[in-house]
């Protein structure tokens, strides 16, 4: 029975990992199961060659998938044994995971597990509903447990600076045809049957401006795509937060992804969603300015806004047959 349970835990973990967040929903991961062990590999064919030349965002997405597998395995009653970057000669092998000792899941783990398929990325403003400070503090502790730091930006002036950096990066990228073509590669047209990328219903055709304005990715670039949902009642910025790490290597990028997913699942359990703004982090000079001026020397890995939305968008994920190597 224990062998059968371990096999079920492995299968459940991989099934759950498909629902992790990734830049433009590229889903840049591949899995294999051998000898009761899952191998997580980077699918470099799905890397953004222009916006993510270093692979930082790819590894953050894979780190989120790793935390999702850890959570799913714990929900199945096993403490996962994880090795990160186990083989320097195989750089695409990011982690291995196997069921360890049997441990009944506590309620906190079950809470996270129930959000794996429910969590959604938001791509517009938020409703004018305050996110409790106590929840933000708990999210910060969740990030810390994974080796990262989540810092809410409380100063209105600092929020304006981050919004301005996002606007600047968005403006520069919009003038670069390479960025635009790479972006629309992952933007689905209405009625698309694709199982990756961002569905047309998943972003607004024309997003309402927040104050200060945090521009969204222009997935409808030169197309009449996107949701026509009324966004007039959802223009709040929400809580702006920075996810940072003390270093900036492959290990830290994976740590950031695990921290990100821990934060997102916990927030989702309390009805809070996240909108991501990585434009400024894709431009070296702006990212370094942010690190020096607003991150106390820590490396910014994600800019996000946290808030409440009453939209319930669908998401798409590739079937297991496409992510199993």
TrEMBL record:
InterPro entries the UniProt entry points to: Nitroreductase-like, Nitroreductase/BluB
Span list, region Disordered: 190-214
Gene3D superfamilies on file: NADH Oxidase
Protein known as: Nitroreductase family protein
